[in-house]
Amino acid sequence: MVFELLAAAGNAAPQNKFGFAEALEQGGFIAYATVIILGIMSFGSFFILFTKWFEQQKILRQHRELRGQFWRASTLKEGAAKLDKNSAWRQVVDDGIAAEDSHGKMADAMEAHDWLHGSLARSEASINARLASGLPFLATVGATSPFIGLFGTVVGIYRALIAIGIAGSASIDKVAGPVGEALIMTALGLLVAVPAVLAYNYLQARNKRIAELLSGFSTDVLAYINSRGAVRPAVITTPGSAAKAAAPAAAAPKP
């Protein structure tokens, strides 16, 4: 008897016909296409965010290591050998060395300086361009995804008006589905746009910081080459290198 009452109550319980899946099913092809496009945009935005963040973090970490070991070398080639082969800093040094090897062909000293400066500037520009790749996609997603969601919203409202016209009255059961679909599309558009805009601004700020570091390093390399090694930055001793230098001294026997 108890089980029969529970079964009857379960059959009599109202079922939700206005969920997310139901709204997409009512929206048809346009609703599914809008959700798929926004999903691709969201996946691409997060993919670019994480890949670019790891790339920037690697460059910044290499810069911290660079300050403690590169300028200790007696020549640029010896210092370049201490850097990672695929690092941005190694690229600047290699381009500077290549420009130094060929600048002797310049008849005028001013032309030689311009050649060195232009070569390092091109190296900086190529690195900055590589770091900026992918950011236009984030800007495009942030600018267009709200309008894609708005397109789904307009279609949902249009379907709600058609349902009202067919029914002859604006009953809640006729308009709840299309209106719910419209609100979902608006929310999805904003949900995709906001992270993309935040990621773009964050990565852009870090790129500007890296560009400043590259410009300073390029200037130091240019001064080193033009002065034949007489002008170089002060060597910054990191805690790790200081500990390594102090260890042999402590281990050495006293006279």
Word description of this protein:
There is one protein chain. With 255 residues, this protein is an all-alpha fold. It has 8 helices and no strands. Helix 2 packs parallel to helix 7, helix 4 (88-102) packs antiparallel against helix 5 (109-132) and helix 5 packs antiparallel against helix 7. The relative contact order is 0.14. Residues 5-10 and 240-255 have low confidence and may be disordered.
Any descriptors?
mainly alpha; single chain; 255 residues
**What overall geometry do the principal axes of the alpha carbons give?**
rod-shaped
Mean pLDDT, nearest integer? 77
Q: Report the C-alpha radius of gyration, rounded.
A: 31 Å
N-to-C SSE string, H for helix and E for strand:
HHHHHHHH
Q: What is the makeup of the main sheet?
A: none
Distance between the termini: 101 Å
Low-pLDDT parts are 5-10, 240-255
Number of helices: 8
Number of strands: 0
Structural class: mainly alpha
**Helix share of residues?**
over 70%
Strand content: under 5%
Summarize the structure.
The protein has 255 residues and is mostly helical.
Itemize the secondary structure elements and their pairings:
Blueprint: H1 2-12, H2 20-69, H3 76-81, H4 88-102, H5 109-132, H6 135-167, H7 172-226, H8 239-251
